[in-house]
Amino acid sequence: MTAHRTRPPHPCRDTAGLIPLKEGDGWTSWELTPDQARTLADHEKLVQIRPGTATHWRLKARDRVGSVRLGSGDGTVQLVITPKVPVDRLLHLVSYAPDRVEFDPRPVAAEARPDLLPALAHAFVSAADRALHHGVLHDYRETYDTLPVVRGRIRHADQLRRRPGVPVPLEVLYDDHTPDIPENRLLLAATRRLLRVPGLDSAPRAALQRLTARLDGVRVLPAGAPAPHWILDRRNARYAHALALADLVLRGASYELGDGREREIAVDGMLVTMWRLFEAYLARAVGEALRHRVGGRPEPQDRNFFLDVEGRHVLKPDLVHYLPSPHDGVLRQAVVLDAKFKTRPQRDDLYQMTAYCVRLGLSEGHLVYASGTPGLVEVSVGEGRLRIWRHVVDLSRPWRDLAADIKSLAESVDAARTMVGR
Length: 422
Hints:
This protein is 32% helix and 29% strand. It is of the alpha+beta class. Helix 3 packs parallel to helix 6 (202-214), helix 3 (116-131) packs antiparallel against helix 7 (240-250) and helix 5 (182-195) runs antiparallel to helix 6. It is globular, with a radius of gyration of 26 Å. Residues 4-14 and 253-267 have low confidence and may be disordered.
């Protein structure tokens, strides 16, 4: 059944037509100008568009959610696709996979909402706690100072210019091992920004205050200063998720998807492909949970295996977890998991997981769905038997329960592995 939107799209502050759609909804009818219709037709990766009447067009969202400004001039539209999952669940997923968020520098109008930043606070605290689990990152920084004793090396030119003939104090230059580095400044700035959110619950506020205490010795950014620049490397890799969320906080993330009301703010456009986000979230969250439970090394989106001997057909499991071999201690593949953002299992999923298990030499595999019913399928392979487990992670559950479900999922995966090993 087609719903009708006979009114023209709401005008936004920048005169772009506002078109709000919902993830998973059917076709809806919209009155569009020819220029607006052409703009949407040029972006069919985001929205499906079909002609209706002379002035009305049928629209249907594809698999991305978010808000983005499209087109120019009279054809400018602001497309808003609202996710089915509540915003706190969405941000919980984003806290594990912020690299799956696509930002668009063209500003869109969005309604200021008091409930989004508290939700983002939960996600940020979770990511920051994981980043600081092994301690606050330090690095060496050149420090110019005036001291009564020699530290590092004396800056002779400065000493002669400022204190000719005076032995102390000394102008020195030394390398200081300090937490006052761009990564920690960004975390502290986001933490302080979230602490200013009115109506923040006591639990996230207390957690943010603990983060502030842990970042002692880090300079506070002056008001209006740009966010510190950082470059991802092996040294700061564990900070990556938290830093991406910190950047989101500081880029004006106190908004909800716009609904045409008067009280609006300008923010960067953002889009999320839900199935990609779900896959990345499951791989990283379950990988972390397994590492904490049994050790080893998780490899999300492992691309080291091929179906054929010539290496032309790469296998793409969402997670391969490596554990030390009991024979020689070398890390070898022990768990394979694949996420499916689907409402029901399909036979193709079983074929795919069977190929993964056979190629990796495993006796069990794990498929994780966003809804449905858990189960087990046993497959005969040669003289042996392969077990393919079907798990469910329900995104409609509160985010705290969702985090507990990931832990339970890791326990089930470990139990299945132990069962096979007996």
